[in-house]
Amino acid sequence: MQEAAKEAIVENNSDNNIAVAVDGTWQKRGYTSHNGVVTVTSMDTGKVIDVDVLSKCCACKNKKNHETSCKSNFRGSSGMMEVKGSCNIFKRFLTFHNARYTKYLGDGDSKAFEAIAKENIYGDEFQVERLECIDHVMKRMGRDFED
């Protein structure tokens, strides 16, 4: 994925401010899943740049090894996994690649963009712009018309 990140920057005319699509998914539908994953995909290359896997499940057999081997890295509602994972990824990209995700294409039904904007991860100089996926906008509009 490091190569995909470098390629995304090169494809963007070596501009370190790139556009990405962000989405989260869960192990099972609904808000009861113990595991989720967030992916960030370059809008220029279509390649996955980063992922963040989140788990609420602790399967440690004994608490002695809990600190070193536990896979649980999230506390909270399953619906908030996408928010936490997105923020983790946005912060990590700046640290690892000295670059920023400045355009955010999401599905519109996530609170992740609002959390990223609120955290002001890149400071006032680099605001993250929200892009809307037309398919998701039309889907939401259709739902509104049905009601």
Keyphrases for this structure?
5 strands, 147 residues, 5 helices, Nucleotidyltransferase, domain 5, single chain, 25% strand, alpha/beta, 35% helix, globular
In short:
By secondary structure, the chain is of the alpha/beta class.
Task: Write up this protein.
The chain has helices at about 1-10, 65-70, 80-95, 110-120, 135-145, and strands at about 15-25, 35-40, 50-55, 100-105, 130. It is of the alpha/beta class and about 150 residues long. It has a single domain, classed as Nucleotidyltransferase, domain 5 (2-Layer Sandwich). It has a 5-stranded mixed β-sheet with strand order 3-2-1-4-5. A hairpin with a 5-residue loop joins strand 2 and strand 3. Helix 3 crosses helix 4 (about 110-120). The longest helix is centred in the middle third of the chain and has 17 residues, at about 80-95. The protein starts with a helix and ends with a helix. The mean pLDDT is about 85.
Number of E-state strands:
5
Total number of helices: 5
Helix content: 25-40%
CATH class: Alpha Beta
What topology does this entry show?
Elements: H1 2-11, E1 17-26, E2 35-42, E3 48-55, H2 66-69, H3 81-97, E4 100-106, H4 112-119, E5 129-132, H5 134-146
Parallel strand pairs: 1-4, 4-5
Antiparallel strand pairs: 1-2, 2-3
Helix pairs in contact: 3-4
Protein name: Mutator-like transposase domain-containing protein
Domain Mutator-like transposase: 8-144
Pfam family, one: Mutator
